[in-house]
Each structure stands twice: as C-alpha cells, then as structure tokens.
Design goal:
Layout lengths: L14 E3 L2 E5 L5 E4 L6 E5 L23 E4 L25 E6 L4 E6 L14 E3 L19 E2 L3 E4 L16 E5 L5 E5 L28 E3 L4 E5 L14 H6 L3 E2 L1
Antiparallel strand pairs: 1-2, 2-3, 3-4, 5-6, 6-7, 7-8, 9-10, 10-11, 11-12, 13-14, 14-15
Length: about 250
C-alpha cells in the first residue's frame, strides 16, 4: 500500500502441516488454507504497531519468510532429546499444536494451529516481546524476518538489523524460549559467548554484534543448533570489526 516501505517483499515459504497449508504475509498475517483447494480456513492478523512512526513507509522493509509448527503429540512417545532437556514443562492442553509467528513489530506469537487463536499460556497472553533487553532501534529496524526453529521444548529465534547505516545496531543475540510458557531459557550473545544464562532485567545485550536473520537448522538427536551468522554492521565494510565480532561474522556457529 501507499504507506508501506518500498521493500515490501513476498518471500514466504508455505508450510504444510496438520492437514493445512500455512502462509504469512509481509504484514505478519497468518493464513491457513486447505492444501488441495486453497480455501481459507482461518486468518490471524496481529494488528502491527508502527513503533511510534507515522506509518510503515519509513521502515527498511517488511518481510515474513514463514512460520513454524510444533506438535506435542509428535514427541509423546519419543525420548526427551538433549536439546529439549532444558525445559520440563508439560504438554499444553490449550494449544497442543502451535504455529509460531515472528512479527514485523518485534513479537513472537504462538497460535493454536487448528483455530488461529492466540495460545494464552505462552508469554503474555500468547506473545513474547522481543524488544526486551535489546536497546534502542529505529522503527522496523529489529525483528525476525525468518521463522524460528523449534525443538521438543524450545523455540529459538534470531533477528535482522539495519545494514549499511550504523555501527550502533541492536545485538545479534539468539534466544531460546520455553515452547509452552514463553519463558526465556537461554540466550547466546556473541559478545558474551560463554554466558548463556538469561540476561538480567535492566541489562542490554551486546550492541552491534553479528546477527542471524536467516533460517537455521536443529538436530535434536545431537542436541545441536546450526546458525548461519551474518556480518557485524555496517555489513559489507569490515574495517571496524573487533577480533571478537570477526570470529562470528559470516560464519557457521553450532
């Protein structure tokens, strides 16, 4: 629309699960379709905030590359994986099957995969505020454009920052939340790579550290995540990188 940024992209990869086809739009709406006919089953609109901007036009871009599906029943008969051992919360009766949606206004939302209703047992009435401990950023300048990864008990998410503009962008921290409650379980900040204890209230993750904006993989049998890291901003120019940021920029971290 006329109030959208010039880079409003249709980069969504549909997800087929639970007998439905799930897609997301640049405005972070989720639509569940019948896979064979394309008929709409349900639609969820997160009612995006402009983050104090007049409209979305000044944002760098609006992108949703996809959503993630989690089904408690798929794990019911399996042994608990090493990755999932960080959480011991029971399976949800409110939302036994969930869709996880990263929104362009910096939230992580859990939806009932059957109905499209928010899972009220996750975070604050169904959502987690991903601006927590991030510090300042321009409107639309920090959120996850890509779907999170899920394990038996964790939902793990990174985020994009604005490239080629500033050397004071938000952290590239990777955060893992309890898949049922939305509680922060661990955080990996490349500025403090050996300290994964959830950050204390009032503290801020390392500014301008290399981020992970793309999709990534998990191997639950090995208990491993594979993170394709981007460059420290300002991205293509590396003359100001520290040895610490150079170690993780444009690398694969496990």
């Amino acid at each position: 629309g006329p109030n959208d940024p010039g880079e409003t992209t249709a980069e969504n990869t549909p997800l087929k699960a639970n007998g439905m086809l799930y897609v997301c739009t640049p405005h972070s709406q989720v639509i569940a379709l019948e896979p064979d006919t394309g008929k709409e089953i349900w639609r969820f609109d997160p009612k995006l905030s402009t983050q104090k901007a007049e409209n979305f036009k000044g944002w760098a871009h609006m992108t949703c590359r996809g959503v993630t599906y989690h089904d408690d029943a798929a794990y019911a008969s399996a042994e608990q994986s090493p990755t999932g051992a960080a959480s011991s919360t029971p399976a949800s009766t409110v939302c036994p099957r969930r869709i996880f949606l990263p929104t362009a206004d910096t939230r992580l939302i859990a939806l009932n995969a059957d109905t499209g209703k928010m899972c009220e047992d996750f975070g604050d009435e169904g959502q987690v505020d991903l601006t927590a401990n991030i510090g300042g950023f321009t409107a639309g300048g920090y959120y996850s454009t890509s779907p999170p990864a899920v394990t038996q008990n964790l939902v793990v998410i990174g985020g994009h920052v604005t490239d080629n503009v500033s050397t004071d962008e938000p952290s590239g921290v990777i955060r893992a939340y309890d898949v049922h409650t939305g509680k922060l379980v661990w955080n990996w900040d490349s500025g403090k790579p050996d300290d994964t204890t959830p950050i204390a209230e009032g503290q801020t993750y390392t500014r301008n550290s290399p981020n992970m904006w793309s999709m990534f993989s998990v191997d639950e049998k090995l208990g491993m995540l594979y993170l394709p890291m981007g460059n420290q901003t300002p991205d293509q120019f590396g003359g100001l990188r520290t040895p610490e940021s150079e170690k993780y920029s444009a690398g694969l971290t496990a």
